[in-house]
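Appendix B. Raw example, untouched.
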Amino acid sequence: MVSKGIFIIGTDTDVGKTLVTASLGWKLSKRVNRLGVMKPFATGIKPYSKKYSSKDVAILCKSIGLNEDEKNVNPYYFPIPCSPYMATDLLGLSQVDLNYALEKYEYMNKNYDYLLIEGIGGLLVPLNNSSSLLDFIKMINMEVIIVTTPKVGTVNHTMLTVKLCLANGISIRGIVVNKMPTRPTIIELNTPHFIEKLTNIQVIGTVPFIKSFKYSTHTFKMVSDVINF
């Protein structure tokens, strides 16, 4: 089955994958007839609502007005903020079955014209005792966008992510640098340039730091306007 969409991954947790995915979804929903979203693996402190266990999943669905069964959008949710593998171990649950997640992906890929899929944490976040997020992306053979930030250390994290993708045959559409301060230091200001220079991957957007933002149409427009996608 041919993959139709993009997988949004991060160099770390809390870099803004949900914001970027939801914003791109809002933008694409205006030109894609049947647009779908997924977050195959999610964890959190507690279930978010009766309809959605994951807050991130609720945000993604709301951004494009998607009304889909939660298990198709989010096959796995664990109410503890850690990797899925650690979550299943600590909670005494069965480990993540990548084939089950793949079944849900294939359903979504078949029933929607284009998919935006949000990852969890970084590429090597363990899903079970033998597989990471990287393995799932390889299974579905989908192009990725990497979300990072301009903080000190991000060049290293971004280069590691890029090298791992390329070494595993994963195509990279571009890099988004999120949370750029209003008054950046000279280091923060030049981080996107050095990321491009060192990875040979285009930075397709630099998103400003948004203090106390709401996941709203205004925010989605502001973010998607500065991403070349």
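End of appendix B.
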